[in-house]
Design a protein that fits this description.
alpha+beta; two-stranded parallel ribbon; 4 helices; single chain
Length: 137
Amino acid sequence: LSKTHQLVLTHGNGPQVGELALERAAATFDVLGAESMGQIGYVLAQAMQSAGITAVPILTQVVVDQFSEAFKDPTKYVGPIYGAQEAQALQNSLGWTIKPDGEYFRRVVPSPPPEEILQIDAIKALLEHAPTTLPIA
């Protein structure tokens, strides 16, 4: 595949960000997101290295529309699952937005679609100048 295409490995981090938020309630989601991106990128780079592939994790930031409907109706699940009573208690005591996730409940946060990736030039530079290196973003 890499012989005919430029590859970039991307990943999600909702469960990890939610767990970090439970550990450090004072930290903002952008900082927790960066921390989890670094952790996941590191693990993926290690796995790629064990397969003989050079990989470079890149922490990325995106620009979003501050007026996006996503801020009015959060949909990104973060953190662990809860039973109905515990979810209601957390919503009441911490002001979280909670939504059903199957038969359980989880915290949700806004996740507006990205309009721009701020580190896109770094990703493009890796693809152009180090074509055998796999960017992880």
